[in-house]
Amino acid sequence: MGDDxxxxxxxxxxxxxxxxxxxxxxxxxxxxxxxxxxSPVPPPAGAPPSHPAVMRARASPAAAxxxxxxxxxxxxxxxxxxxxxxxATVSTQxxxxxxxxDADFRxxxxxxxxxxxxxxxxxxxxxxxxxVRVQPxxxxxxxxxxxxxxxxRVSMWGKSMTGFHEQNGRWLADALxxxxxxxx
Length: 184
What we know:
Elements: H1 2-30, H2 52-59, H3 86-99, H4 102-106, H5 119-131, E1 142-146, E2 149-155, E3 161-167, E4 170-173
Antiparallel strand pairs: 1-2, 2-3, 3-4
């Protein structure tokens, strides 16, 4: 009989633990914050009327831009041309290079370095991205504020850091990160 009581107590503790785990899981699911809403992205300067960003702007009413999250949300699906976070900008840059959209690719950088985004540099980026997949180290990214702008610095290829500056609700790169070492 002594063995039956121990088995009953163990079973009761097991059930109690399972109930507590279930309650905790339901509580955690209930309190998960919703993903941040994506703000409308203005089309790049000089975008043709058929550009996806122009089409979206026509289809949706104007809204005030919202602040982008300080860290990229890798679970949030990004539109093909999005600048709501540094990760979205990198995805947009890769897509623009792959599609051969040099003018819009140039607009994904801060104005101070756009003159360095030459056709030769873009060709070098295109070649490198065709050979090696970019793997930004978002876990080691560094957040800062420079000249009143939020900046997130991330290692793109495991070496130097590229800064992404939030300007007018868009995250723009401060370096031509896709050019092989030794080029501008």
